[in-house]
User: What shape does this take?
Amino acid sequence: MKTENIEGLTLFEINLLIQQGGRFVMFPNIMSKLKSIYFVRPKEKIFKYALKHFFKNILNGWRDFPLRPFYISKSLFYLAIGGKDYTSKVLADLNRINPIYNPNLYCLQYV
Assistant: This one.
C-alpha cells in the first residue's frame, strides 16, 4: 500500500504529529485493489480525501448493477466515520524498516 503525505518528514516528526492528533487513515476503494493510506495532520480536514474515494466508488459501483447499493452504502459509511485508522500498523512498519543513521565521524571532522 502506498502512504501519502509523509514526504520530507522524519520518523521523529511523524511521531510528534501523531501525539498532537495526526493519524494514518485509509478509504478503501470498494471495486479495486489499489488502496492508499493518507497521513492526516492534526488540524487537517479528512473530507477532501474521503470525497475523492466516494466519487470513485460511485462511478465504479454503476458497473455492477446488483451490488451497487452495497458499494455506495459502504463508501458512505467510511466517509461518515473518517476512514479506517491504520496509525498503529503504519507506525509499526515505519519503526521496523527505519534505517538507523550512523554518520561517519571521520568525514565530519575538520581536517
Observations:
- The beta strands are 2-4, 23-26, 36-40, 84-85.
- The mean pLDDT is 78.
